[in-house]
Protein backbone atom coordinates (compact mmCIF):
# COMPACT_ATOMS: atom_id res chain seq x y z
CA UNK A 1 0.00 0.00 0.00
CA UNK A 2 1.40 3.43 -0.92
CA UNK A 3 1.33 6.44 1.43
CA UNK A 4 -1.83 8.01 0.01
CA UNK A 5 -3.62 4.66 0.16
CA UNK A 6 -2.60 4.31 3.81
CA UNK A 7 -3.86 7.80 4.66
CA UNK A 8 -7.15 7.09 2.90
CA UNK A 9 -7.55 3.70 4.59
CA UNK A 10 -6.80 5.00 8.10
CA UNK A 11 -8.08 8.56 7.75
CA UNK A 12 -10.46 8.20 10.72
CA UNK A 13 -7.73 6.97 13.06
CA UNK A 14 -5.27 9.62 11.86
CA UNK A 15 -7.84 12.39 12.32
CA UNK A 16 -8.59 11.17 15.86
CA UNK A 17 -4.89 11.04 16.80
CA UNK A 18 -4.39 14.48 15.23
CA UNK A 19 -7.19 15.84 17.44
CA UNK A 20 -5.75 14.10 20.50
CA UNK A 21 -2.31 15.58 19.83
CA UNK A 22 -3.71 19.09 19.35
CA UNK A 23 -5.85 18.83 22.49
CA UNK A 24 -2.93 17.56 24.59
CA UNK A 25 -0.63 20.35 23.40
CA UNK A 26 -3.28 23.04 23.93
CA UNK A 27 -4.05 21.90 27.47
CA UNK A 28 -0.41 21.50 28.46
CA UNK A 29 0.59 24.92 27.09
CA UNK A 30 -2.42 26.52 28.78
CA UNK A 31 -1.42 24.93 32.09
CA UNK A 32 2.23 25.89 31.60
CA UNK A 33 1.18 29.47 30.77
CA UNK A 34 -0.87 29.81 33.96
CA UNK A 35 1.91 28.37 36.14
CA UNK A 36 4.71 30.14 34.28
CA UNK A 37 3.07 33.57 34.33
CA UNK A 38 2.27 33.14 38.02
CA UNK A 39 5.91 32.33 38.80
CA UNK A 40 7.14 35.23 36.66
CA UNK A 41 4.79 37.73 38.31
CA UNK A 42 5.84 36.48 41.76
CA UNK A 43 9.56 36.77 41.04
CA UNK A 44 10.33 39.46 38.44
CA UNK A 45 10.75 42.29 40.97
CA UNK A 46 13.48 40.36 42.84
CA UNK A 47 16.43 39.54 40.54
CA UNK A 48 17.73 36.73 42.76
CA UNK A 49 14.29 35.07 42.86
CA UNK A 50 13.85 35.54 39.11
CA UNK A 51 17.23 33.85 38.66
CA UNK A 52 16.20 30.90 40.84
CA UNK A 53 12.89 30.55 38.97
CA UNK A 54 14.51 30.65 35.53
CA UNK A 55 17.32 28.36 36.67
CA UNK A 56 14.89 25.75 38.00
CA UNK A 57 12.90 25.76 34.75
CA UNK A 58 16.18 25.48 32.83
CA UNK A 59 17.28 22.45 34.85
CA UNK A 60 13.97 20.70 34.11
CA UNK A 61 14.38 21.57 30.45
CA UNK A 62 17.81 19.92 30.29
CA UNK A 63 16.41 16.50 31.29
CA UNK A 64 16.22 14.35 28.15
CA UNK A 65 12.59 14.23 27.05
CA UNK A 66 12.43 10.42 26.81
CA UNK A 67 13.89 10.12 30.31
CA UNK A 68 11.42 12.65 31.76
CA UNK A 69 8.44 10.77 30.28
CA UNK A 70 9.92 7.55 31.69
CA UNK A 71 10.39 9.11 35.14
CA UNK A 72 6.72 10.10 35.21
CA UNK A 73 5.51 6.51 34.70
CA UNK A 74 6.28 5.25 38.27
CA UNK A 75 4.57 8.36 39.67
CA UNK A 76 1.47 8.58 37.47
CA UNK A 77 1.27 5.25 35.64
CA UNK A 78 0.69 5.01 31.89
CA UNK A 79 -1.61 7.13 29.75
CA UNK A 80 -2.61 10.78 29.77
CA UNK A 81 -1.42 11.85 33.24
CA UNK A 82 2.37 11.31 32.84
CA UNK A 83 2.21 12.80 29.34
CA UNK A 84 0.49 15.98 30.52
CA UNK A 85 2.82 16.46 33.49
CA UNK A 86 6.01 15.92 31.46
CA UNK A 87 4.87 18.09 28.55
CA UNK A 88 3.75 20.90 30.88
CA UNK A 89 7.14 20.90 32.61
CA UNK A 90 8.92 21.07 29.25
CA UNK A 91 6.74 23.92 28.03
CA UNK A 92 7.40 26.15 31.04
CA UNK A 93 10.94 27.45 30.40
CA UNK A 94 10.25 29.73 27.38
CA UNK A 95 7.13 31.10 29.08
CA UNK A 96 8.81 31.80 32.42
CA UNK A 97 11.94 33.30 30.87
CA UNK A 98 10.09 35.53 28.40
CA UNK A 99 7.57 36.69 30.99
CA UNK A 100 10.32 37.69 33.43
CA UNK A 101 12.36 39.42 30.71
CA UNK A 102 9.27 41.18 29.37
CA UNK A 103 8.12 42.42 32.78
CA UNK A 104 11.62 43.52 33.81
CA UNK A 105 12.02 45.33 30.50
CA UNK A 106 9.04 47.66 30.98
CA UNK A 107 10.14 51.29 30.95
CA UNK A 108 10.55 52.44 34.57
CA UNK A 109 9.33 55.90 33.60
CA UNK A 110 5.99 54.38 32.58
CA UNK A 111 5.73 52.63 35.94
CA UNK A 112 6.65 55.80 37.83
CA UNK A 113 4.06 57.76 35.83
CA UNK A 114 1.39 55.18 36.68
CA UNK A 115 2.39 55.31 40.34
CA UNK A 116 2.22 59.09 40.22
CA UNK A 117 -1.35 58.83 38.91
CA UNK A 118 -2.26 56.93 42.06
CA UNK A 119 -2.28 53.39 40.71
CA UNK A 120 -1.59 50.59 43.18
CA UNK A 121 0.80 47.69 42.61
CA UNK A 122 -1.81 45.38 41.09
CA UNK A 123 -3.24 48.11 38.87
CA UNK A 124 0.25 48.90 37.57
CA UNK A 125 0.83 45.20 36.91
CA UNK A 126 -2.40 44.55 35.01
CA UNK A 127 -2.89 47.95 33.32
CA UNK A 128 0.71 48.91 32.50
CA UNK A 129 3.34 46.19 32.87
CA UNK A 130 1.52 43.12 31.51
CA UNK A 131 0.10 44.93 28.43
CA UNK A 132 3.56 46.35 27.61
CA UNK A 133 5.24 42.97 28.17
CA UNK A 134 2.55 41.01 26.30
CA UNK A 135 4.37 40.73 22.92
CA UNK A 136 7.40 39.16 24.63
CA UNK A 137 5.18 36.91 26.76
CA UNK A 138 3.23 35.77 23.70
CA UNK A 139 6.47 34.95 21.91
CA UNK A 140 7.42 32.67 24.80
CA UNK A 141 4.05 30.91 24.67
CA UNK A 142 4.43 30.52 20.91
CA UNK A 143 7.87 28.93 21.29
CA UNK A 144 6.56 26.63 24.03
CA UNK A 145 3.72 25.48 21.79
CA UNK A 146 6.06 24.58 18.94
CA UNK A 147 8.25 22.73 21.41
CA UNK A 148 5.27 20.86 22.88
CA UNK A 149 3.99 19.83 19.45
CA UNK A 150 7.29 18.08 18.68
CA UNK A 151 8.05 16.64 22.12
CA UNK A 152 4.41 15.53 22.41
CA UNK A 153 5.19 12.71 20.00
CA UNK A 154 7.26 11.08 22.75
CA UNK A 155 4.10 10.81 24.88
CA UNK A 156 3.44 7.56 23.01
CA UNK A 157 6.34 6.08 25.04
CA UNK A 158 4.11 6.45 28.12
CA UNK A 159 1.03 5.25 26.23
CA UNK A 160 -0.07 8.86 25.91
CA UNK A 161 -2.38 10.22 23.22
CA UNK A 162 -1.46 11.72 19.88
CA UNK A 163 0.40 11.14 16.65
CA UNK A 164 3.45 9.71 18.40
CA UNK A 165 1.71 6.33 18.33
CA UNK A 166 2.04 6.32 14.53
CA UNK A 167 5.77 7.10 14.72
CA UNK A 168 6.64 4.70 17.54
CA UNK A 169 4.58 1.88 16.02
CA UNK A 170 6.16 2.39 12.61
CA UNK A 171 9.71 2.52 14.00
CA UNK A 172 9.07 -0.66 16.03
CA UNK A 173 8.02 -2.50 12.87
CA UNK A 174 10.53 -1.12 10.37
CA UNK A 175 10.55 -3.39 7.36
CA UNK A 176 6.97 -4.48 7.99
CA UNK A 177 3.83 -3.52 6.09
CA UNK A 178 2.97 0.19 6.32
CA UNK A 179 5.79 0.87 8.80
CA UNK A 180 7.22 3.75 6.77
CA UNK A 181 3.73 5.01 6.00
CA UNK A 182 3.00 5.22 9.72
CA UNK A 183 6.21 7.15 10.46
CA UNK A 184 5.63 9.57 7.57
CA UNK A 185 1.95 10.08 8.43
CA UNK A 186 2.74 10.81 12.09
CA UNK A 187 5.58 13.17 11.20
CA UNK A 188 3.58 15.06 8.58
CA UNK A 189 0.66 15.38 10.97
CA UNK A 190 2.92 16.96 13.60
CA UNK A 191 4.39 19.39 11.05
CA UNK A 192 0.90 20.43 9.89
CA UNK A 193 -0.25 20.86 13.49
CA UNK A 194 2.80 23.04 14.27
CA UNK A 195 2.03 25.25 11.26
CA UNK A 196 -1.63 25.60 12.30
CA UNK A 197 -0.69 26.57 15.85
CA UNK A 198 1.85 29.07 14.54
CA UNK A 199 -0.72 30.66 12.24
CA UNK A 200 -3.11 30.94 15.19
CA UNK A 201 -0.45 32.76 17.24
CA UNK A 202 0.22 35.19 14.41
CA UNK A 203 -3.49 36.00 14.36
CA UNK A 204 -3.69 36.27 18.17
CA UNK A 205 -0.66 38.58 18.15
CA UNK A 206 -2.26 40.88 15.60
CA UNK A 207 -5.57 40.96 17.47
CA UNK A 208 -4.14 41.51 20.96
CA UNK A 209 -1.08 43.69 20.37
CA UNK A 210 -1.09 47.32 19.35
CA UNK A 211 0.90 48.07 16.19
CA UNK A 212 3.61 49.96 18.07
CA UNK A 213 4.36 47.01 20.37
CA UNK A 214 4.50 44.20 17.81
CA UNK A 215 7.79 42.26 17.75
Automatic annotation (TrEMBL):
Entry's localization field: Cell membrane; Membrane
Alphabetized PROSITE patterns for the sequence: ABC_TM1 (PS50928)
Annotated GO CC locations: plasma membrane
The organism's place on the tree of life at top rank: Bacteria
GO biological process annotation, one example: glycine betaine transport
InterPro entries on file: ABC_transp_perm/SBD, MetI-like, MetI-like_sf
Protein name: Binding-protein-dependent transport systems inner membrane component
The species this protein was found in: Stackebrandtia nassauensis (strain DSM 44728 / CIP 108903 / NRRL B-16338 / NBRC 102104 / LLR-40K-21)
The organism's taxonomic lineage, starting at the top: Bacteria, Bacillati, Actinomycetota, Actinomycetes, Glycomycetales
